[in-house]
Amino acid sequence: MLSTALDLDAEGFHAGYIDVPASLNHSAWANLRVPLFSIKRGEGPRCLLLGGCHGDEYEGPIALSHLVHGELKLEDVQGQIIVMPAFNTAAVQNGSRLSPLDDGNMNRAFPGNPRGTITERIADFVTRELIPRSDVVVDLHSGGRSLMFLPCTFVPVQKTEAATQAIQDLANAFDAPLSVTIREPSAAEMIDTEVERQGKRILATELGGSALATANTISITKRGIKGVLSSMGILKEQAAIPATSKEKMTLLVDGLHHYTYSDDAGIYEMLFEPGSKVKQGQVIGYLHFADRVDRPPQSVLANTSGVLFCTAGQGLVQRGDVLAVVGHIE
Ligand SMILES: [Zn+2]
Protein backbone atom coordinates (compact mmCIF):
# COMPACT_ATOMS: atom_id res chain seq x y z
CA MET A 1 0.00 0.00 0.00
CA LEU A 2 1.39 3.40 -0.98
CA SER A 3 1.85 6.23 1.47
CA THR A 4 3.24 9.74 1.55
CA ALA A 5 5.47 11.58 3.99
CA LEU A 6 3.24 14.60 3.43
CA ASP A 7 0.86 15.04 6.39
CA LEU A 8 -2.53 15.55 4.74
CA ASP A 9 -4.09 16.57 8.05
CA ALA A 10 -1.56 19.33 8.80
CA GLU A 11 -2.51 22.97 8.61
CA GLY A 12 -0.66 25.12 6.09
CA PHE A 13 0.85 24.81 2.61
CA HIS A 14 2.68 21.52 2.09
CA ALA A 15 4.33 19.92 -0.94
CA GLY A 16 5.57 16.36 -1.20
CA TYR A 17 5.37 13.11 -3.08
CA ILE A 18 3.66 9.76 -3.11
CA ASP A 19 6.62 7.44 -3.62
CA VAL A 20 5.77 4.47 -5.81
CA PRO A 21 8.34 1.67 -5.89
CA ALA A 22 9.03 1.06 -9.57
CA SER A 23 11.66 -1.60 -10.01
CA LEU A 24 12.77 -1.23 -13.61
CA ASN A 25 15.34 -2.71 -16.00
CA HIS A 26 17.49 0.40 -15.81
CA SER A 27 17.07 0.98 -12.06
CA ALA A 28 16.48 -1.72 -9.47
CA TRP A 29 15.28 0.37 -6.52
CA ALA A 30 13.73 3.34 -8.31
CA ASN A 31 10.72 5.25 -7.06
CA LEU A 32 8.19 7.00 -9.24
CA ARG A 33 7.57 10.27 -7.38
CA VAL A 34 3.97 11.50 -7.76
CA PRO A 35 3.69 15.21 -6.81
CA LEU A 36 1.13 16.09 -4.16
CA PHE A 37 0.17 19.40 -2.54
CA SER A 38 -2.05 20.07 0.45
CA ILE A 39 -3.25 23.56 1.26
CA LYS A 40 -5.25 23.51 4.48
CA ARG A 41 -6.52 26.36 6.60
CA GLY A 42 -9.04 25.59 9.34
CA GLU A 43 -12.21 23.58 8.91
CA GLY A 44 -14.31 23.95 5.78
CA PRO A 45 -15.12 22.42 2.40
CA ARG A 46 -12.51 20.27 0.70
CA CYS A 47 -11.61 19.92 -2.96
CA LEU A 48 -9.28 17.53 -4.81
CA LEU A 49 -7.84 18.96 -8.06
CA LEU A 50 -6.44 16.44 -10.57
CA GLY A 51 -4.40 17.16 -13.70
CA GLY A 52 -2.50 14.76 -15.93
CA CYS A 53 -4.81 11.76 -15.55
CA HIS A 54 -3.78 11.27 -19.17
CA GLY A 55 -0.26 12.42 -19.99
CA ASP A 56 -1.00 14.21 -23.28
CA GLU A 57 -3.64 16.56 -21.81
CA TYR A 58 -1.88 19.73 -20.73
CA GLU A 59 -4.37 22.33 -19.47
CA GLY A 60 -4.67 20.67 -16.04
CA PRO A 61 -0.92 20.39 -15.29
CA ILE A 62 -0.32 23.98 -16.49
CA ALA A 63 -3.18 25.61 -14.58
CA LEU A 64 -2.43 23.62 -11.41
CA SER A 65 1.29 24.45 -11.67
CA HIS A 66 0.37 28.16 -11.61
CA LEU A 67 -2.04 27.56 -8.75
CA VAL A 68 0.47 25.92 -6.39
CA HIS A 69 3.45 28.07 -7.42
CA GLY A 70 2.21 31.51 -6.51
CA GLU A 71 -1.41 32.03 -7.50
CA LEU A 72 -2.93 30.39 -4.45
CA LYS A 73 -2.40 32.21 -1.14
CA LEU A 74 -2.93 30.25 2.05
CA GLU A 75 -4.66 33.20 3.70
CA ASP A 76 -7.38 33.12 1.00
CA VAL A 77 -8.24 29.47 1.72
CA GLN A 78 -10.88 28.20 4.12
CA GLY A 79 -10.92 24.40 4.26
CA GLN A 80 -8.59 22.23 2.19
CA ILE A 81 -7.36 21.94 -1.38
CA ILE A 82 -5.39 18.84 -2.39
CA VAL A 83 -3.63 19.09 -5.75
CA MET A 84 -2.17 16.36 -7.97
CA PRO A 85 -0.93 18.20 -11.07
CA ALA A 86 0.57 15.06 -12.70
CA PHE A 87 -1.81 12.30 -11.62
CA ASN A 88 -0.38 9.64 -13.96
CA THR A 89 3.15 11.01 -13.51
CA ALA A 90 4.96 8.57 -15.82
CA ALA A 91 2.45 9.32 -18.61
CA VAL A 92 2.90 13.09 -18.05
CA GLN A 93 6.71 12.72 -18.21
CA ASN A 94 6.25 10.77 -21.44
CA GLY A 95 3.58 12.99 -23.07
CA SER A 96 1.44 9.90 -23.65
CA ARG A 97 -2.14 9.04 -22.72
CA LEU A 98 -1.13 5.84 -20.94
CA SER A 99 1.72 5.13 -18.53
CA PRO A 100 4.84 3.89 -20.38
CA LEU A 101 5.64 1.77 -17.27
CA ASP A 102 2.60 -0.51 -17.41
CA ASP A 103 0.36 0.78 -20.26
CA GLY A 104 -2.03 1.86 -17.50
CA ASN A 105 -4.96 4.17 -18.27
CA MET A 106 -5.49 6.03 -14.99
CA ASN A 107 -9.16 6.57 -15.77
CA ARG A 108 -9.73 2.83 -16.22
CA ALA A 109 -7.75 1.79 -13.12
CA PHE A 110 -10.28 2.55 -10.35
CA PRO A 111 -10.85 1.72 -7.57
CA GLY A 112 -7.25 0.55 -7.93
CA ASN A 113 -5.36 -2.31 -6.39
CA PRO A 114 -2.73 -2.02 -3.60
CA ARG A 115 -0.89 -5.02 -5.10
CA GLY A 116 -1.50 -4.15 -8.73
CA THR A 117 0.44 -2.31 -11.40
CA ILE A 118 2.00 1.09 -10.72
CA THR A 119 -1.06 2.83 -12.21
CA GLU A 120 -3.44 0.68 -10.13
CA ARG A 121 -1.48 1.39 -6.94
CA ILE A 122 -1.69 5.17 -7.50
CA ALA A 123 -5.44 4.81 -8.13
CA ASP A 124 -5.75 2.81 -4.89
CA PHE A 125 -4.02 5.60 -2.95
CA VAL A 126 -6.43 8.18 -4.38
CA THR A 127 -9.40 5.93 -3.54
CA ARG A 128 -8.27 5.31 0.06
CA GLU A 129 -6.58 8.58 1.04
CA LEU A 130 -7.68 11.46 -1.19
CA ILE A 131 -11.33 10.95 -2.25
CA PRO A 132 -12.41 10.43 1.40
CA ARG A 133 -10.71 13.77 2.24
CA SER A 134 -12.69 15.61 -0.47
CA ASP A 135 -16.23 16.87 -0.94
CA VAL A 136 -15.62 17.63 -4.62
CA VAL A 137 -13.15 16.20 -7.14
CA VAL A 138 -12.27 18.21 -10.25
CA ASP A 139 -10.69 15.97 -12.90
CA LEU A 140 -9.11 18.17 -15.59
CA HIS A 141 -9.08 16.34 -18.92
CA SER A 142 -8.59 17.48 -22.46
CA GLY A 143 -8.74 15.72 -25.84
CA GLY A 144 -5.13 14.55 -25.76
CA ARG A 145 -3.42 13.80 -29.05
CA SER A 146 -6.36 12.01 -30.68
CA LEU A 147 -9.30 14.36 -29.98
CA MET A 148 -10.08 18.09 -30.04
CA PHE A 149 -12.95 19.49 -27.97
CA LEU A 150 -14.76 22.75 -27.79
CA PRO A 151 -13.73 23.47 -24.17
CA CYS A 152 -16.45 21.94 -22.01
CA THR A 153 -17.48 20.42 -18.70
CA PHE A 154 -19.21 17.02 -18.52
CA VAL A 155 -22.37 16.49 -16.48
CA PRO A 156 -23.31 12.80 -16.32
CA VAL A 157 -27.02 12.28 -15.55
CA GLN A 158 -27.33 10.88 -12.00
CA LYS A 159 -30.00 8.69 -10.36
CA THR A 160 -31.89 11.71 -9.02
CA GLU A 161 -32.50 15.13 -10.50
CA ALA A 162 -31.04 16.75 -7.37
CA ALA A 163 -27.79 14.80 -7.78
CA THR A 164 -27.51 15.83 -11.43
CA GLN A 165 -28.21 19.44 -10.47
CA ALA A 166 -25.44 19.30 -7.84
CA ILE A 167 -22.94 18.48 -10.61
CA GLN A 168 -24.53 21.01 -12.97
CA ASP A 169 -23.93 23.62 -10.23
CA LEU A 170 -20.21 22.79 -10.32
CA ALA A 171 -20.23 23.03 -14.14
CA ASN A 172 -21.95 26.42 -13.89
CA ALA A 173 -19.28 27.56 -11.41
CA PHE A 174 -16.51 26.34 -13.76
CA ASP A 175 -18.26 28.34 -16.51
CA ALA A 176 -16.70 26.72 -19.60
CA PRO A 177 -18.11 27.84 -22.96
CA LEU A 178 -19.97 24.51 -23.24
CA SER A 179 -21.59 22.11 -20.79
CA VAL A 180 -22.30 18.60 -22.09
CA THR A 181 -24.98 16.49 -20.44
CA ILE A 182 -24.07 12.81 -20.76
CA ARG A 183 -26.81 10.21 -20.53
CA GLU A 184 -24.58 7.14 -20.86
CA PRO A 185 -23.40 4.66 -18.25
CA SER A 186 -19.84 5.47 -17.15
CA ALA A 187 -17.38 2.59 -17.00
CA ALA A 188 -17.01 0.91 -13.59
CA GLU A 189 -13.23 1.44 -13.70
CA MET A 190 -13.47 5.24 -14.02
CA ILE A 191 -12.66 7.56 -11.11
CA ASP A 192 -16.15 9.04 -11.56
CA THR A 193 -17.72 5.74 -10.44
CA GLU A 194 -15.53 5.58 -7.31
CA VAL A 195 -16.17 9.22 -6.36
CA GLU A 196 -19.94 8.66 -6.71
CA ARG A 197 -19.68 5.40 -4.72
CA GLN A 198 -18.12 7.38 -1.87
CA GLY A 199 -21.02 9.86 -2.02
CA LYS A 200 -18.92 12.76 -3.33
CA ARG A 201 -19.29 14.98 -6.40
CA ILE A 202 -16.97 14.95 -9.41
CA LEU A 203 -16.69 17.45 -12.24
CA ALA A 204 -14.81 16.29 -15.34
CA THR A 205 -13.70 18.62 -18.11
CA GLU A 206 -12.58 18.34 -21.73
CA LEU A 207 -10.73 21.58 -22.28
CA GLY A 208 -9.13 21.38 -25.72
CA GLY A 209 -6.93 18.77 -27.35
CA SER A 210 -4.59 17.86 -30.21
CA ALA A 211 -1.87 17.53 -27.52
CA LEU A 212 -1.79 21.32 -27.30
CA ALA A 213 -2.65 23.87 -24.67
CA THR A 214 -3.59 27.31 -25.97
CA ALA A 215 -3.84 30.73 -24.29
CA ASN A 216 -7.64 30.41 -24.55
CA THR A 217 -7.95 26.88 -23.07
CA ILE A 218 -5.52 27.67 -20.23
CA SER A 219 -7.39 30.84 -19.33
CA ILE A 220 -10.71 28.90 -19.31
CA THR A 221 -9.09 26.27 -17.05
CA LYS A 222 -7.58 28.72 -14.56
CA ARG A 223 -10.82 30.66 -14.37
CA GLY A 224 -12.87 27.46 -14.00
CA ILE A 225 -10.81 26.10 -11.09
CA LYS A 226 -11.14 29.38 -9.20
CA GLY A 227 -14.86 29.49 -9.98
CA VAL A 228 -15.41 26.03 -8.45
CA LEU A 229 -13.27 26.81 -5.37
CA SER A 230 -15.16 30.08 -4.85
CA SER A 231 -18.58 28.45 -5.29
CA MET A 232 -17.64 25.84 -2.65
CA GLY A 233 -16.62 28.61 -0.23
CA ILE A 234 -12.96 27.48 -0.13
CA LEU A 235 -11.71 30.64 -1.82
CA LYS A 236 -13.02 34.02 -0.82
CA GLU A 237 -15.46 35.31 -3.40
CA GLN A 238 -13.30 37.14 -5.89
CA ALA A 239 -14.12 40.06 -8.13
CA ALA A 240 -15.88 38.54 -11.14
CA ILE A 241 -13.31 37.34 -13.62
CA PRO A 242 -14.41 38.34 -17.13
CA ALA A 243 -15.88 35.45 -19.10
CA THR A 244 -13.64 34.11 -21.85
CA SER A 245 -16.62 33.36 -24.08
CA LYS A 246 -19.96 35.13 -24.19
CA GLU A 247 -21.83 32.31 -25.85
CA LYS A 248 -22.83 29.52 -23.48
CA MET A 249 -24.26 26.26 -24.69
CA THR A 250 -25.58 23.00 -23.25
CA LEU A 251 -25.58 19.83 -25.36
CA LEU A 252 -26.94 16.35 -24.74
CA VAL A 253 -25.11 13.12 -25.62
CA ASP A 254 -27.24 10.03 -25.00
CA GLY A 255 -25.98 7.22 -27.18
CA LEU A 256 -23.73 5.92 -29.93
CA HIS A 257 -25.60 7.85 -32.65
CA HIS A 258 -23.69 10.97 -31.58
CA TYR A 259 -20.37 9.52 -32.64
CA THR A 260 -18.89 9.18 -36.14
CA TYR A 261 -16.11 6.59 -36.31
CA SER A 262 -13.56 6.18 -39.06
CA ASP A 263 -14.19 3.22 -41.37
CA ASP A 264 -10.63 3.16 -42.58
CA ALA A 265 -7.10 4.44 -41.98
CA GLY A 266 -6.44 7.70 -43.77
CA ILE A 267 -5.95 11.43 -43.48
CA TYR A 268 -8.97 13.23 -42.05
CA GLU A 269 -10.03 16.58 -43.45
CA MET A 270 -12.61 18.28 -41.23
CA LEU A 271 -14.97 20.71 -42.93
CA PHE A 272 -16.28 22.39 -39.77
CA GLU A 273 -14.66 23.85 -36.70
CA PRO A 274 -15.85 22.62 -33.29
CA GLY A 275 -18.91 24.66 -32.33
CA SER A 276 -20.51 24.44 -35.80
CA LYS A 277 -24.11 23.32 -36.32
CA VAL A 278 -24.45 20.26 -38.56
CA LYS A 279 -27.34 18.12 -39.84
CA GLN A 280 -27.77 14.35 -39.86
CA GLY A 281 -26.37 12.93 -43.12
CA GLN A 282 -24.41 16.09 -43.91
CA VAL A 283 -20.86 15.70 -45.19
CA ILE A 284 -18.69 16.95 -42.30
CA GLY A 285 -15.31 15.78 -43.57
CA TYR A 286 -13.33 13.62 -45.99
CA LEU A 287 -11.01 10.71 -45.50
CA HIS A 288 -8.06 10.87 -47.91
CA PHE A 289 -5.91 7.94 -49.08
CA ALA A 290 -2.93 9.90 -50.32
CA ASP A 291 -0.76 6.81 -50.76
CA ARG A 292 -3.09 5.26 -53.38
CA VAL A 293 -4.01 6.27 -56.92
CA ASP A 294 -7.24 4.24 -57.03
CA ARG A 295 -9.16 5.69 -54.07
CA PRO A 296 -10.92 9.05 -54.19
CA PRO A 297 -11.66 10.89 -50.92
CA GLN A 298 -14.41 9.22 -48.89
CA SER A 299 -17.20 11.40 -47.47
CA VAL A 300 -17.67 11.37 -43.70
CA LEU A 301 -21.23 12.05 -42.54
CA ALA A 302 -22.76 13.40 -39.34
CA ASN A 303 -24.76 10.66 -37.61
CA THR A 304 -27.16 13.10 -35.99
CA SER A 305 -28.13 16.77 -36.06
CA GLY A 306 -26.77 19.25 -33.55
CA VAL A 307 -23.48 20.94 -32.69
CA LEU A 308 -20.12 19.42 -33.55
CA PHE A 309 -18.18 19.74 -30.30
CA CYS A 310 -15.42 17.15 -30.70
CA THR A 311 -13.33 16.18 -33.73
CA ALA A 312 -10.31 14.03 -34.50
CA GLY A 313 -7.32 15.75 -32.92
CA GLN A 314 -4.76 14.88 -35.59
CA GLY A 315 -4.75 14.43 -39.36
CA LEU A 316 -3.81 10.75 -39.53
CA VAL A 317 -6.56 8.46 -38.25
CA GLN A 318 -6.96 4.71 -37.95
CA ARG A 319 -10.03 2.54 -38.52
CA GLY A 320 -12.25 2.84 -35.43
CA ASP A 321 -11.00 6.28 -34.35
CA VAL A 322 -13.58 8.91 -33.41
CA LEU A 323 -13.79 11.55 -36.16
CA ALA A 324 -16.64 13.63 -34.76
CA VAL A 325 -19.08 13.88 -31.87
CA VAL A 326 -22.27 15.88 -32.37
CA GLY A 327 -24.41 16.87 -29.37
CA HIS A 328 -28.13 17.68 -29.42
CA ILE A 329 -28.98 21.25 -28.52
CA GLU A 330 -30.96 21.17 -25.24
ZN1 LIG B 1 -8.34 12.43 -20.43
TrEMBL record:
Gene3D superfamilies, A to Z: Zn peptidases
Needed cofactors: Zn(2+)
Keywords: Hydrolase, Metal-binding, Zinc
InterPro entries on file: AstE_AspA_cat, N-alpha-Ac-DABA-like, N-alpha-Ac-DABA_deacetylase
Keyword Metal-binding: yes
Domain Succinylglutamate desuccinylase/Aspartoacylase catalytic positions: 44-230
Gene Ontology molecular function, alphabetical: hydrolase activity, acting on carbon-nitrogen (but not peptide) bonds, in linear amides; hydrolase activity, acting on ester bonds; metal ion binding
Hydrolase found in the keyword field: yes
PANTHER family tied to this protein: BLL3975 PROTEIN (PTHR37326:SF1)
Protein name as annotated: N-alpha-acetyl-L-2,4-diaminobutyrate deacetylase
